[in-house]
Write a structure and sequence with these properties.
Order of helices and strands: EHEHEHEHHHEHEEHHEHEEEHEHEEHEE
Helix content: 25-40%
Number of strands: 16
Number of helices: 13
Largest sheet: 7 strands, mixed
Distance between the termini: 67 Å
Shape: elongated
Strand content: 15-25%
Structural class: alpha/beta
């Protein structure tokens, strides 16, 4: 959408601004710098400060704004990046004062997402978030946006350039929403197919760069892109994983969360985040080596609440214990004996067996190994059980009927086989029963 509005032609040198605001949580300086470098920008200066509350005109106050303007002149910075969300008016006022492009934390994160999106859906979602964010910021210091259109082929309607830009952006947003609705319907169809196949979904959630994709690759061998950088994964990836004595599950690798995750981005990625909303279990991956891990846990839970996923069962995965001294893989249980935390290292595989054991215990409670006896006219039901990939062996009886040895979730089996007299257990929850 660059043709819709005019902005300073910035380069790759950035001056960073971070304030400590009394009403806000302390900003993470290292995370802020890592975000900037993740966007491919070089840091030429860093300005910090503190305020009781943001200034309504410049956010930083007049004196600090003039200090920033002087720093821009000294360093020849091309862009100023704030570790805060600015109002459109604050951005405009700062740009007019410092004669340099200004972007806020939301704009920075959106820029990173635009670079990392790979799938068709991911690119649409990022563009939608960018347009929603930029639609409030069309009025900058650029006077061409407020002039009446004129000249050959442009006279007549009396529509200002700004009104045209807003209208075109609105039309583009509607177009993207229509395309995303089609993609969302395809997702829903795939989800219904998994539900019919009785495969529960387990989603990996967590703060960005906590090691979700590395753990995903360790469990599935999928080879998903995993790097020690923020937002390495944007597009949800699904893989089937076989859990011994518990059947198959669908494991979903999802986008990482972050402090002050832009609301436009959460809204745009809602269809992708539905994989998290519809999950049977969440594996909350945590960087155990990070000094602010508890604060990051809280940020993730805030986003889970925002997408209505706060009531889904959750197991905390304390990852990267190889970076901690003297911590070996282990499991923490709550008062009722349920798994609460698992300490492991997805990088070297230590403790992953504990996670697989926890998944077995969680999904194996309803798992049965049994014989199913079907009459000759029930060939359709036989085909359905084969389609579920749960049949271990089969015997053709003398009357033309079928004896199928199956392993699956009991409640799903009962959905297909209404007459319980057709089922004879071999084992359930590890308890041996007389074979049929």
């Amino acid at each position: 959408m660059k043709e819709l509005f005019e902005r300073h032609q910035g380069g790759e040198n950035a001056l960073l601004v971070q304030l400590k605001i009394a009403s806000e949580n302390r900003g993470d300086t290292e995370e802020f710098k890592e975000l900037v470098t993740s966007a491919g920008v070089s840091i030429v200066d860093f300005i910090s400060g503190s305020r009781i509350k943001p200034d309504s005109k410049y956010f930083v106050g007049k004196g600090k704004a003039e200090e920033i303007a002087q720093a821009v002149a000294n360093t020849e910075a091309d862009v100023i990046i704030f570790d805060h969300n600015l109002s459109p008016a604050q951005e405009r006022n700062l740009e007019q004062l410092v004669k340099c492009r200004v972007i806020d934390r939301t704009g920075l994160i959106l820029d990173i997402f635009s670079q990392r999106a790979r799938s068709f859906e991911g690119k649409l979602q990022v563009e939608l978030a960018q347009l929603r964010h930029l639609s409030t910021r069309l009025v900058r210091g650029w006077t061409h946006l407020e002039r009446q259109k004129g000249g050959i082929g442009l006279r007549g309607p009396g529509e200002t350039q700004l009104e045209t830009d807003r209208r075109l952006i609105g039309e583009r947003i509607k177009h993207i929403n229509r395309r995303l609705e089609k993609v969302q319907k395809q997702r829903q169809q795939g989800r219904r197919s998994r539900e019919r196949a009785a495969m529960p979904t387990v989603s990996l959630v967590g703060y960005t760069n906590a090691g979700k994709s590395t753990l995903f690759n360790t469990l599935t061998g999928a080879g998903v892109y995993a790097q020690d950088q923020l937002f390495a994964t944007l597009d949800a990836t699904l893989r089937r994983v076989e859990i011994a004595d518990a059947g198959p599950i669908i494991l979903a690798d999802t986008v990482g969360f972050i402090r002050q995750l832009p609301h436009d981005l959460v809204a745009a990625f809602r269809s992708t985040l539905e994989e998290t909303q519809k999950s049977h279990l969440l594996l909350h991956v945590i960087d155990a080596s990070h000094e602010d891990r508890q604060e990051r846990i809280e940020h993730v839970n805030e986003v889970l609440t925002e997408i209505d996923a706060q009531d889904i069962d959750q197991i905390e995965i304390y990852n990267k214990i190889d970076l901690l001294g003297g911590v070996s893989p282990h499991v923490d249980y709550d008062e009722s004996g349920q798994v609460r935390r698992i300490w492991l290292s997805s990088a070297n595989g230590e403790g992953v067996d504990l996670l697989l054991g926890a998944l077995k215990a969680y999904f194996g409670k309803d798992f049965v190994h049994c014989w199913v006896y079907l009459e000759p006219h029930e060939a359709k039901l036989r085909a359905q059980l084969y389609a579920l990939d749960v049949v271990a062996s089969e015997i053709i009886r003398e009357n033309g009927g079928f004896s199928l040895e199956v392993s699956m979730q009991k409640h799903v089996l009962e959905q297909y086989v209404k007459d319980s007299g057709k089922i004879e257990l071999i084992s359930s929850q590890g308890i041996s029963v007389k074979a049929g």
